[in-house]
Amino acid sequence: MAQTNILLEAGTNELEVVEFYLDEATPPSVGEGMENVEADPQAPAGAGFYRGYYGVNVAKVLEIIRMPKVTELPEVQHPSVLGAFNLRSRIIPLVDLAMWLGKTHTQTDEQPKTIVTEFNNVTTAFMVSGVNRIHRISWEKVEQPNKYVAAVSNNTVIGVVKLEERIVFLLDLEKVVANLNPKLGLRLDDLGEDWDNTGYRALVADDSALVREMQRDLLEKAGFTVEVVENGREAWERLEDFKRRAEEGNRPITDFVHVMVSDIEMPVMDGLNLTHRIKTDPMLKQLPVVLFSSLITDKLRHKGESVGADDQISKPEVTQLAKRAMALIRDRERAQTETA
Q1: Among 28, 202, 297, 320, whose CB has the most other CB atoms within 10 angstroms?
Q2: In what order do the strands lie in the sheet with 50-57?
């Protein structure tokens, strides 16, 4: 698959989505937020067949291939793990995404496709019914799932977007991988040192409630005062409020915030656009920004660098967050003292 995301300039609040579909034999009850499971003219003919549409950020996709020859694994945590295959000397596990989602396959002549992904420095492949195309959209077009969608999807849906008259659910494949192998998920380890924190303030933006609370817990244990928001837009609005109060009171911005910690993938405004806004603002540009995301890989690190991020941490390295945030704050304080 062509790496079209290389052409996507960082900081524009856009993303590219690989749209794929899953054909299912027995549709669930259609309710609020589940409009994409209605009968689809492109779906296989026959009563009860329908096609559901889903998407994943192209930045997480290495390539899309035909169904490979799979070797069964001796022990698996879930029946959806079909086995593993060899792709250019890399052994990659293959997950039947429909089975993991609890769907029943329909019989068609169409050969399934395999989406090979990489995030959190882990490579995993997912079997799907087929792939449509890549769409370039604004994060402003991505809505957060309502409570019904979140509940029926076991919080696997992270965004909802309308593309060409279809409702497409953006899936949290990180959650799938972490559930299949808990060792790959986020976890808090002992911080391992006595923190001498004099009350630094952190603003955290992440659309995952679980990740937000884990970051809050970690940073508070390290002595930070923490405020959390759900996306980049909310973070920017809080920063603008801090700016206004600082200007009105003739106070430094550090009276309100010392470090910004942000995810990259978020509805409405992503972390790259948020970082770009901070680093081009006369008052906020000195504020340290840490990007904390599954998209921090050697291939994608340049995107964070291009918008001026001070540090980038892959999500499994959550215990590094407090240490590196504090190091950035203290480096900035030393630089300001030397300048003064």
Answers
A1: 202
A2: 130-138, 14-24, 50-57, 166-171, 157-163
